[in-house]
Hints:
The chain has 254 residues and is α/β, with parallel strands linked by helices. It is built from seven helices and 15 strands. A hairpin with a 4-residue loop joins strand 8 and strand 9.
Amino acid sequence: MAKARFIRSQLLDRHGITGIFSLRNGGVSPPPFDSQNFGPDPGDSDRFIEQNLVGLMQSAALTCLPHQANQVHKTALLWCSGKGKMHSQQADILMANRNNTAVAVRVADCLPILLADPEAGIVAAVHAGWRGSAAGIVRYAVEAMLKHGAQHEKLLAALGPCIGPCCFAIGNDAAEALIKSTAGANDCLIHTSEIHADLAEINVLQLIDAGLNKSHIEVHKACTACHPEDFFSFRRDGNQSGRQLAVVATPPTT
Ligand SMILES: [Zn+2]
């Protein structure tokens, strides 16, 4: 089997937290889901998706299967513990504060955000598309972490690859909603004959607004739609698009 490819968050790694963003290759799924697909919805076989998950865990040295949920572009949160599985509940924030627990979100253009307070032992995976971003989903995640013992100054955030401002054309309604989501968001929109949005930058502003230190925010800028060799993209490939997986795990022991 080809070696599963992924990006490791150096910021989280430096603080003893495993946080990874899968790339599209190094898995076993056949075209059009070639080859490291984690999304069951478009029609790939569960067997291939499971093999991809095992391959990714081995390559990234993850010791526990990640929890996943039914993502619906809203702001619901699911606390996870124990052995990872696919939950039927709807949630776009998955959070854990028990040792040896991994949580994950699936993306293909939407922004994956991995959060951690290494000292409090809390991690979260957030699925932030434009709707979630307009609703300030990452703020909900930060608030929940603070309520459970995390501290502003300890919080770390790793933002994975997503659709870039080069390709992310949005309508007027989406633009208005994003502008309202945080101060300065208007500067993250580019107006030409269309409106293009910088989803990652808007979420960076929301994180700073939520109290995170700028030096604790890592952004992996690579447009998923521009790079078919590395990423699945829903905008580019529609129903033929696979999904990347973003995973963050609490340490095996403290
Ligand atoms: Zn692009």
